[in-house]
Amino acid sequence: MRFVTDKMQITNATIGKVWTSSYKRMNMKLYKGRFRISLLAILLSVVMSSCEGIFGSDEEIPDQVVLFQYAYINHAWGYQHQGWLIDSSGEVHCFEQPKAWHFPDSTGTLGNEEMMLNLSMADSSCFVVSMDDLELYGGKIATASKGELTDPENVMADAGISGYYVWVYNASTETYHRILLKEKGDWETENQSAAAGAIVEWMEEVRQDIAGE
Predict the structure, then answer these.
(1) 81, 101 in Cβ contact below 8 A?
(2) CA gap 6, 12 in Å, rounded
(3) What are phi and psi of 198, to 5 degrees?
């Protein structure tokens, strides 16, 4: 009986050691799994925070392509239409005399499909803005979109219109909404938001760089 009891004690001790070892291995695997998940969450948080800095909110991040637009249009002495679009990677896409350009409706709305068609009619890239500038001025879009406009004033004739705009994308309706920052030429009006003024000043620098002025 003594022998049997000792054998049983040894067996129980062995089982205990095996169970303890297995438990430790299981905890280690669980720890590693949790560590990987935590690391992935941190990386995603960093990426999303970076994108949020550019767009001002996380709603536009997955879908918005076009952020800024400059355009010059003149119907006097022959039709002239030229300008550029800045996308979310900082590429500036220039266009001149596009044949089938899509303009926003009376509410400033343009469908995503039409915007992509416009983008396809522009050059692949005629200039590149820095990501620092894109983040700085892209972060001002939300504030600029809330600015009030001055009353249009007729100041010239046959000079055409130069326009500075930003776009806000609505993922649920798949539409862009154009926000007017400033128009000058025959008629002049501007967005009174300080954020809009800062964006216009930067866009004018971009325009001068592209034109070599």
Answers:
(1) yes
(2) 10
(3) -65, -40
In this predicted structure, the answer to whether residue 61 has a pLDDT above a threshold of 60 is no
The tokens for 23 are 């438990």
Record the tokens describing residue 62, joined without a space. 């997955």
The pTM (predicted TM-score) of the whole model is 0.72
Dihedral of the alpha carbons of 64, 66, 67, 69, in degrees to the nearest 10: -160
Q: How confident is the model at residue 124 (pLDDT cuts 50, 70, 90)?
A: confident
- For 207, the token pair is 């325009």
Residue type, 194: A
| DSSP structure string for 18-78 | HHHHHHHHHHHHHHHHHHHHHHHHHHHHHHHHHHHHHHSSSSSTTT--EEEEEEEEE-TTS
How many CA atoms does the CB half-sphere of 140 hold within 13 Å?
23
Joined tokens for residue 118: 């416009």
| pLDDT digits 0-9 by tens, 12-51 | 444 344 334 444 444 444 344 443 434 333 333 333 333 4
Which of 178, 183, 180 minimizes the C-alpha distance to 161? Answer: 183
Contact 133, 176 (CB under 8 A): no
| Among 99, 93, 94, 105, CA closest to 79 | 99
The Cα–Cα gap between 41 and 141 comes to 28
User: 127 by DSSP, 3-state: which?
Assistant: strand
In DSSP terms, 38 is beta-bridged to none
The total number of residues written for the chain in this structure: 213
